[in-house]
């Protein structure tokens, strides 16, 4: 079976758009992993790159669908942030990624975020167990930041992973 990307011929503009999308998500995940922060310039770059990437990719784009997806996710996310249920960087990353995803792929994307996020959250809880932490410390000599108790779970990682996993199905890429 061929890899999903082997069937896509994006052209130079599409390749550039894909590179911006992938690099932004990877950098956001790494940043959240290392510092529990996702820089505003990174989510801003991801959001602002969408219209340029869409034009450069040369694919027909339902602009209203993409803007509506980003706006809807940001609105719900801002509410969750106000209720202290979600971090601000996570909200912005989720909304910027939803902008690239569009309404037709929004539900599968959010389900994927929930599944990856659930597995990641369970992993983080397990990493916070004293016996597991003792084993990690004996092996690696230090704990990952998110394994420390009383710190939030860096949900930017599952958002980035889900965004990368759904990328082959996005309208902008063919």
Explain how this protein is built.
The structure is a single chain. Helix 5 crosses helix 7. Helices cover 71% and strands 0% of the residues. The protein is mostly helical and 174 residues long. The protein has one domain.
Explain briefly what this protein structure is.
71% of the residues lie in helices and 0% in strands. With 174 residues, the chain is mainly α.
Q: What is the chain-wise order of helices and strands? A: HHHHHHH
User: Which regions are unreliable across 5 or more consecutive residues at pLDDT < 50?
Assistant: none
Nearest-integer average pLDDT: 89
SS field, number of helical segments: 7
Task: Give the tally of structural domains.
Answer: 1
How much of the sequence lies in strands comes to under 5%
Principal-axis shape: elongated
Largest sheet: none
Please state the structural category: mainly alpha
Roughly how much helix do the residues carry, as a percent range?
A: over 70%
Oligomer: single chain
Gyration radius from CA atoms, angstroms: 17 Å
Let me know the number of strands.
Answer: 0
